[in-house]
Amino acid sequence: xxxxxxxxxxxxxxxxxxxxxxxxxxxxxxxxxxxxxxxxxxxxxxxxxxxxxxxxxxxxxxxxxxxxxxxxxxxxxxxxxxxxxxxxxxxxxxxxxxxxxxxxxxxxxxxxxxxxxxxxxxxxxxxxxxxxxxxxxxxxxxxxxxxxxxxxxxxxxxxxxxxxxxxxxxxxxxxxxxxxxxxxxxxxxxxxxxxxxxxxxxxxxxxxxxxxxxxxxxxxxxxxxxxxxxxxxxxxxxxxxxxxxxxxxxxxxxxxxxxxxx
Length: 262
Known about the structure:
Pfam families: SAM_Ribosomal_mS41. The protein is of the alpha+beta class.
């Protein structure tokens, strides 16, 4: 329930009332509760990575925010004084940090096994009690279901195709092409497996999702890297003058089209 202003304050002259209200606001800011600072995660370990993920070129302002604590404690006025411009960039940054504070992240925010900004994803079968998983199919066993999990990196990065020798890719004449590599097994406890949000399994054994890159030569294995704008919420664009003027703009256009049709 909102508190009402004292009647004595309402009886004050207008200039005095405004000055008193401004004083009250400054006192409220001084006594505002301290915001909780979330801990860095394996996928978001520092300020630079956070600003890179949320996009809109905010990574250019990383030098203006000295620490992780400052990222989640600086006010809008302090960000402005630090040089984070324009105002919509500050609002976007503050919106995203509140989401992160409340545990809302983009793809990869729940990953635990991350090294140098790269996480390995793999399709695995885990026990399932769902009725639809009781019978075996061509792609899974009975009583099992497929999920995408995050595992420690076990597959070496594929070689750069631009630097690879042509004969190594095609094989020598008269020799069969090299067999497709199989990803080494990973030991894990099925009870502790947690499915990764924001990704899905397509074509029985392929991992798809925003920013997901399959590892060539290894079926059911993919990687997710920290990249610019991976979590970006893109701004909309105005159509026919925007929401307020849309009806007016379209009406004038119809009138002009009728005139031209005569």
